[in-house]
Amino acid sequence: MAARQPTPPPAPGADPDAILETKRALAWTHTARFLVTASRLSELPPTELAEIAFVGRSNAGKSTAINALAQQRRLAFASKTPGRTQHINLFELGPKDAPDAWFADLPGYGYAAVERSAKLRWQEVMAEYLAVRRSLSAIVMLVDSRLGFTDIDKKLLGFVAPRIGNGSVKLLVLLTKVDKLSRSERGASLQRATAVLEEVSSDESDVSVATFSALSRAGVDDAAVTLYRWVRRASEPYQAPVAGDALPAGMPQS
Ligand code: GDP
Q1: Residue ranges lining ligand 1, Cβ < 6 Å
Q2: Separation of 83 CA from ligand 1 center, angstroms?
Q3: Are 29 and 235 a contacting pair, CB within 8 Å?
Q4: What pTM value is reported for the model?
Q5: 142 by DSSP, 3-state: which?
Q6: DSSP β-ladder status, 88-93 and 33-38
Q7: What's the rounded mean pLDDT across residues 26-51?
Q8: Ligand 1 pocket: which of 64, 81, 85, 213 to mutate (most atoms within 8 A of CB)
């Protein structure tokens, strides 16, 4: 199946169910809280929860995207300190007493100033994580919409292509910073990315691509809904409560 775009956001006056789902999705992503940081794979705790990994080249806008999705200013730090670039940060989502997913913020790659040995170590960590991490259920890949997939992005896709191809790991590619592009440039960026993703897509795969801007918030709601659906499918029937939700019938209305 070709890479497709997530369902468009509900237009004003659109289906109330779609509006409610978007609200729930954003309420859910907003629950993200820092859990633990690990400098190597063996330090990552195992989990039965769905783990969604965020990957991307340094400067692609990964930290900004995570913060935009979580509607928190400092959840993911845009850390550019070389010593911190190799850490995997885990965030937990869902109710505190019954978490339902983890976000794994993986080290940004392709940072020019990183020495060769560190780059090789990064490759090993990423390749191993993407190939063997059992709880990995989905990947959000951040790609600068102006650059498109670079060689190193394609290499990373190659690490995880088997798991994407057989549908065991889902993939959402967000083409970031589209506020910097004209409408026709956005279309071209989307087309180029879709063509690259054909290579990892199959009848079993769940691969999608969308334009995104943390600055204008274009695509933020859609991305939150995609993630929320991934996790809800895995753990029905939890629904993130949203402000103004009606209490179930029979409950005292305060
Ligand atoms: P990371 O290294 O992938 O975590 O990238 P950051 O999130 O730190 O972002 C890198 C740079 O891109 C920063 O200067 C951000 O302010 C900028 N940036 C991130 N998202 C956007 C966006 O949606 N629009 C614009 N114009 N700039 C962005």
Answers
A1: 56, 58-64, 78, 108, 176-177, 179-180, 213-215
A2: 20
A3: no
A4: 0.89
A5: strand
A6: antiparallel
A7: 93
A8: 64
Centroid of ligand 1 to alpha carbon of 172 (angstroms): 18
91's enclosing H/E stretch is strand 88-93
pLDDT at 250: 41
Q: How far is the CA of 220 from the centre of ligand 1 (A)?
A: 14
Listed residue (183, 209, 184, 187) closest to 196, CA to CA: 209
Distance in Å, CA 152 to ligand 1 centroid: 19
If one compares 246 and 92, the residue with the highest pLDDT of the two is 92
What's the token pair of residue 22? 């978007």
pLDDT digits (tens, 9 = 90+) for 129-144: 998 899 999 999 999 9
Q: Whose CA is nearest to atom 2 of ligand 1?
A: 59
Q: List the residue whose alpha carbon is closest to atom 20 of ligand 1.
A: 61
- Token digits for 115? 């020495």
Instruction: Give the Cα separation of 232 and 239 in Å (integer).
Output: 8
Mean pLDDT of the region 148-159: 94
Cα(148) to centroid(ligand 1), Å: 15
Distance from C-alpha of 86 to C-alpha of 89, rounded to nearest angstrom: 10
Across the chain, mean pLDDT equals 87
**Neighbour count for residue 153 (Cβ, 10 Å):** 24
For 223, the enclosing helix (H) or strand (E) is: helix 220-234
